[in-house]
Amino acid sequence: MSFGEVLKPRQKQNIKCYASIPKEGSYEAILIMAAVYNDYPIFHELYKNAMDWIIAKIGGYLKDTLAGRGDVEKLVEVIHEQAKQQSALNTILANGIVKANDDLASLHGKLIDTLPELVENARSPAKKMVAPVGKTCTQMTQFADTENEFIVSEPEALVIRSELDLEIGEMQDYVCNKIYELNLGTGACKLYVEGIGGSINGKISDPALDTPNNIYSRCLNEQRGFKFKAKPVDRDGEIHKLFISDATE
């Protein structure tokens, strides 16, 4: 049996954390401390912006990779160029990812070696993080109102949550031959699309869906088609779901 104390409202508890100096080439300390550095003055203000920047970039890469669109080469290039221009970031990298006084030549190798494990470790928490997207909200913004913000969209959230091997395609033009199910509250729909066999599940994010007598409800009632733009999510080369952004008659 264990005993503890329940804190009173507004009562604060002091927490001590002990950590050894990270080994050369390791940036685990940066990632571990990232979760708490905004709440505790463990970094000098000089390095705060640099920490914000690198955490956002790595976070954005994790999101893209889990959604099937990560580009480690681009991440390395962006970090490399930024470090050339920002001494604070260079100092953080030198004490974490790369060797001190290095010219960042080893950055590529360090990231290649460590990012796959980081992605796998983030997979389960990411599923929980994006759970509201598509259910209670249409997107999630990380690092909002900063120059480093990035968005988790509905297609990305679907891919991150899914146990299936899904892939996000580029925005394309389609022709709907017939829409036969439509939920005005959620935007969920079923439709027949020209050139695609069988019915397709869709999700409409077009703000026009909220207006009376909109194009989607009209075409449903009149049993006629329309043109639309959508981002596909594919499974094994076949369309799994279409995320529809706008439509015209």
Describe the structure in your own words.
The chain is of the alpha+beta class. The protein has two domains: 28-131, no CATH class; 166-248, OB fold (Dihydrolipoamide Acetyltransferase, E2P). It is 36% helix and 22% strand. The chain has seven helices and eight strands. It has helices spanning 28-34, 45-66, 72-85, 87-94, 107-129, 154-161, 215-222, and strands at residues 139-142, 150-153, 166-168, 172-182, 188-193, 199-204, 226-235, 238-248. It has a five-stranded mixed beta barrel. A two-stranded antiparallel ribbon has the order 1-2. Strand 7 (226-235) and strand 8 (238-248) form a beta hairpin. Helix 3 (72-85) packs across helix 4 (87-94) and helix 3 (72-85) packs across helix 5. Residues 21-42 have low confidence and may be disordered.
Task: From the structure above, extract its key features.
249 residues, alpha+beta, OB fold (Dihydrolipoamide Acetyltransferase, E2P), two-stranded antiparallel sheet, 7 helices, elongated
How many E strands?
Answer: 8
Could you tell me the strand content as a percent range?
Answer: 15-25%
N- and C-termini, Cα separation = 69 Å
What fraction, in percent, of the residue positions are helical? 25-40%
How many strands, what sense, and barrel or not for the largest sheet?
Answer: 5 strands, mixed, barrel
Domain count: the total is 2
How are the strands ordered across the major sheet? 4-5-6-8-7
Q: Can you tell me the overall shape?
A: elongated
Q: Give, in order, the helices and strands.
A: HHHHHEEHEEEEHEE
CA gyration radius, whole angstroms: 23 Å
Query: Mean pLDDT, nearest integer?
Result: 80
The helix/strand class is: alpha+beta
Number of helices: 7
| Uncertain stretches of 5 or more adjacent residues | 21-42
